[in-house]
Amino acid sequence: MEIGIDKIAFYVPSYYIELSELATVRGIDPAKYTVGLGQNKTAIIEKTQDCVTLAANAAKQILNTQLINEIDLVLFATESSVDESKAGSIFLQSILNLRKNCRYVELKQACYSSAIAINFAKNHIMVNPNSKVLVIASDIAKYGTNSAGEPTQGAGAIAMVISKNPSILVLNDDATFICEDVNDFFRPTHHDVPIVDGKLSTETYIRFFQTTCQAYLNNQKLQFNDFAGICFHMPFTKLGQKALLSLTQEEKLITRYEYSKYYSKEIGNIYTGSLFLSIISLLEQDQSLQPNDLIGFFAYGSGATGEFFTGRLVPGYQNHLKKSYHEALLQTRNKLTIEEYENLYNHQIDPKRYHQNVIHIQSIENNVKYYTK
Ligand code: CAA
To answer: Can you give the pTM of this predicted structure?
Structure first.
């Protein structure tokens, strides 16, 4: 039975900042952000958005009544949880009118948990072939104003439906993975922003890519030119490129990397959703991919886990993408000045603290937001 991604969409908040403007205000050469890190813009979360509302807005793009009746498992991958106990996915039940005879959980391992979520979804469908699984990856990447990580912030959500006979991508059963107890990036309970060893994090990311990708090639007896493209978790777009170039100079992969980073450089790091944002970007922006092309995926979660897995494109996959919606979403965002962004970030409502009073509503623009009662 072939199982994989049947539907996929992303959602980002309606504000952004220009990183060249941030650099100027911080007294840094803008080229450090735009060339050195490879980022143009950062999505900025509104006061009335959290990981649940981002997720709901992404899921609305791919759900319909028939699918809602078929989904019996909702997996919510996040490191921006609004509750230490209740799964983020349960809030989606009432917002999206999902079934009650359905399982809802939340998964955590930094940015990696979305990759294991699609694996769990696949295993679930193997024993329940008629079931469909809604997988969410939703996060707010915040390092704090004036921090080293500030140019690598971002916010956004991915929603996917995993099913048999998928319309977009068939997932293969050949993952290679590694996990080591590394303190490169972690956020103890009650900390608003993570504690980061930036250099260790980038070194571990590249080392884990080299280890898992090389193991994959050895196991499968394949070479880099067997891939049509490789998509990466992208905390900033320069990092995946450095990892790729550390192992191969294959021209086709270098060209396709440019397509895969198109959305990330306009949005920033969306943690659990980042790898899937690069997949959407490659599929929507590259017009030369062919049916059955083999695509590689590198997932990374600080702490630290790395995984390399693959999939094959389904004929006609282009007809199931949301390209015009995604492009319009990015084009209609509002730019904040750096002062407006700082004011917003320094006076954010923390949904965790207001949890008892939070209600999720559909606003006049029909986006899901939260308000305190
Ligand atoms: N023009 C062009 N390039 C310039 C430049 C200029 N004027 N000035 C500097 N650069 C280049 C540097 O040479 C460097 O490139 P190389 O690494 O290729 O040499 C790049 O810009 C960045 O410069 P620094 O390394 O000096 O930057 P920094 O130390 O201030 O911060 C960072 C970089 C460590 C990534 C920091 O932004 C950070 O801590 N980010 C958060 C952590 C992170 O994203 N880690 C990634 C792996 S962890 C992960 O994947 C999980 C996750 O999602 C968080």
So the answer is: 0.97
Tell how far the Cα of 187 is from the centroid of ligand 1, in angstroms.
Answer: 20
Whether 190 sits among the annotated catalytic residues: the reply is no
Q: How many domains does the chain have?
A: 2
* Domain of 147, in residue numbers: 3-168+319-371
Is 149's C-beta closer than 6 angstroms to any atom of ligand 1?
yes
Ligand 1 pocket check for 217: Cβ under 6 Å: no
What CATH number corresponds to the domain at position 187?
3.40.47.10
pLDDT, tens only, 274-299:
999 999 999 999 999 999 999 999 99
Query: How many beta carbons lie within 10 A of that of residue 344, not counting itself?
Result: 16
Structure letter (DSSP) for residue 246: T
Q: Note whether 313 and 225 are same-domain residues.
A: yes
Kindly give the distance from the C-alpha atom of residue 36 to the centroid of ligand 1, in angstroms, as a whole number: 7
Q: pLDDT tens-digit profile of 65-94?
A: 999 999 999 999 999 999 899 999 999 999
102 is catalytic: no
233 is known as an active-site residue: yes
